[in-house]
Design brief:
The protein has 189 residues and is mainly alpha-helical. It contains 10 helices and 4 strands. Strands 1-2 form a two-stranded antiparallel ribbon. Strands 3-4 form a two-stranded antiparallel ribbon.
Length: 189
C-alpha cells in the first residue's frame, strides 16, 4: 500500500474543488465532505441522502471501529450538499454517492467503489499539479493536518480521528521539517 500525504496547500485544495465541481457534482461533494469531516472513505461511501439532507449533524457507526461518530456538518459541506440536491444528478433517497451500477437483488443503486473514489481523487490531484502520493485517505489526512494547523491540539485530533495514541496522530498528519523549523523561526522569545 502506498503512503499518501495530506494536501497542505489551500490553493491546491481550492483548485481541486473547482476541477471536481466542473467535472461532476457528486465527486465534488465527496471531496468537500471528506476534507471537512475526517471520515474514512468507507464511511463516506456508505452515507445516504437521509443521513445528510436537511441535517445539522452526521451520526454514523464507523465501519472500522464500530464506534458511533456524531459531528456537526460544516457550512461548506451544507452549501455543497444543498447545491448537489438541487441538481438533476443527485439521488432523491438512498446512497449519497451512487454509481451507475445497481444491486442485482434490490435494483437500488450501489455506491461508487473505493477504487472509483481513488481514481476521482487521484485524477483531480494530478490535474491541478499535485505530485505527492494521493489517494482516498488523503481526504482524512488533509482534515487532520488543517485542523492541526488551525490550532487544534494533537489530543483533540487524536479523538476526532479515533487514533489510539498521540504518536500515531503526529505521524499521520505528515508534519514536515519545515513545520518543525517554523516553530524555532517564529517563536523568538
Amino acid at each position: 500500500m502506498e503512503y499518501v500525504q495530506p494536501i497542505r496547500d489551500t490553493k491546491q485544495i481550492d483548485n481541486m474543488k473547482r476541477y471536481l465541481k466542473e467535472k461532476n457534482l457528486r465527486d465534488w461533494v465527496m471531496f468537500i465532505l471528506g476534507i471537512n469531516s475526517g471520515l474514512r472513505i468507507s464511511d463516506i461511501l456508505k452515507l445516504t441522502v437521509e443521513d445528510v439532507k436537511d441535517k445539522d449533524r452526521i451520526i454514523i457507526r464507523e465501519i472500522k471501529t464500530g464506534k458511533t461518530k456524531d459531528f456537526p456538518i460544516a457550512d461548506s459541506c451544507k452549501k455543497a450538499l444543498s447545491e448537489y440536491f438541487k441538481s438533476e444528478s443527485a439521488p432523491i433517497t438512498g446512497i449519497l454517492f451512487p454509481s451507475r451500477k445497481s444491486d442485482k437483488a434490490t435494483k437500488e443503486p450501489k455506491a461508487i467503489s473505493r477504487q472509483q473514489a481513488y481514481d476521482v481523487i487521484n485524477e483531480a490531484a494530478r490535474a491541478v499539479g499535485i505530485t505527492d502520493s494521493v489517494g482516498t485517505h488523503t481526504l482524512r489526512k488533509t482534515f487532520g493536518y488543517h485542523a492541526y494547523k488551525s490550532g487544534a491540539g494533537i489530543e483533540v485530533i487524536q479523538k476526532l480521528l479515533n487514533h489510539s495514541a498521540p504518536s500515531i496522530t503526529l505521524r499521520y498528519l505528515g508534519i514536515t521539517q519545515d513545520d518543525l523549523d517554523s516553530v524555532y523561526i517564529n517563536l523568538n522569545l
